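Today's session is about reading a structure prediction critically. Students often jump straight to the picture, but the first step is always the sequence itself: look for stretches that repeat, for charged clusters, for runs of hydrophobic residues. Only then move on to the predicted structure, which in these notes is written as discrete structure tokens rather than atom positions. Here is the chain we will use throughout the hour.
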Amino acid sequence: MTIGNLPSAGSGLARVTPHNTVLEAVSVMESNNYSQLAVGSSDHNLSGSISWTDIGRASHYGLATDLVKDVMAPDPPVANWNSPLLGQVRGIVDRGFVFVRNPHNEFTGIVTSSDLSGQFLDLAKPFLLIGEIEGWIRATLDAAFDADELAGATSSARVPDDTESDQAEREVEGARDLTFGEYIRWIERPANWERIGWNVDRSLFCKHLHEVREVRNDVMHFSPDPIDVASIVRVEELLRWLRRLSATRGST
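Below is the predicted structure for this chain, in token form.
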């Protein structure tokens, strides 16, 4: 992922010139709820930045604060559009922001610490939701079956004579040693479903599991396409269902 993948990197850049008044700069920041502005004469040329911190520091030390040039910070942090995002994180955390420049040498946006937080949430949420789903499934299977039984769910159980198979030597000490697909195949068996004891339609529940498995594959294999909202909603629905089922099972 590059820094240009973030929406704010291409959403436009509010700018003032060094000869604008600080009052004008403050008005732009206040009206747009910005914490900082670019300072420059054009979209191709930035000479600095101005922020609430710069204004407050200048005022505290009794410096002139009439014009932007009196308080601006020179040499603003800049990242190229195609720069890897991970390599920019530390600088954004330290400085609070970075201006983004596209391949045409135009400054097209600003990425802030807040943008990083939002991006982290977007990336982490599917991992966290699916991780909790797997946790509930594992706890349920471990409560209903012992390790020797669960060993029958593995792919290696279906290719016992294939010594070249990656699956052939797998050891199963519990549900954590199974794949998501193996969870589903195990749960789909009517006799196993009866052992689990969930009083819901098995086919419908397993249909939900298959849908979430597809989302999980995209997440865990770092698909370049973002996970769509409908898929996230589907994952959240299954998680809520599992929580209720597990709570009901635990009370019986």
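Discussion point for the tutorial: Residues 118-250 form one domain.
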